[in-house]
């Protein structure tokens, strides 16, 4: 697959980029080089390759999903103006 000058100019017009005739020729050769490289990549046989999300084998570090109360209620209420037995004490707002 290759692109011609008309395609380069059309793409430039669609992208609202003003290019000169010399730039169009230069972009044509660059685009054709890129498309040639992509064609080379398509020649690689990847039929037996499993899809990867990373090139390095690794597992995500995760903690056990266990429900706890945190075991540090005293630290949580340490700066509270008033606390009792690990609970915040607030003034009564409803009679």
UniProtKB/TrEMBL annotation:
EC number(s) recorded for this UniProt protein: 6.3.5.-
Residues of the signal peptide: none
GO molecular function (one): asparaginyl-tRNA synthase (glutamine-hydrolyzing) activity
UniProt KW ATP-binding keyword: yes
Similarity comment: family membership: Belongs to the GatC family.
Subunit structure: Heterotrimer of A, B and C subunits.
Listed NCBIfam families: gatC (TIGR00135)
Function description: Allows the formation of correctly charged Asn-tRNA(Asn) or Gln-tRNA(Gln) through the transamidation of misacylated Asp-tRNA(Asn) or Glu-tRNA(Gln) in organisms which lack either or both of asparaginyl-tRNA or glutaminyl-tRNA synthetases. The reaction takes place in the presence of glutamine and ATP through an activated phospho-Asp-tRNA(Asn) or phospho-Glu-tRNA(Gln).
Protein name: Aspartyl/glutamyl-tRNA(Asn/Gln) amidotransferase subunit C
Taxonomic lineage from the root: Bacteria, Pseudomonadati, Pseudomonadota, Alphaproteobacteria, Hyphomicrobiales
Gene behind the chain: gatC
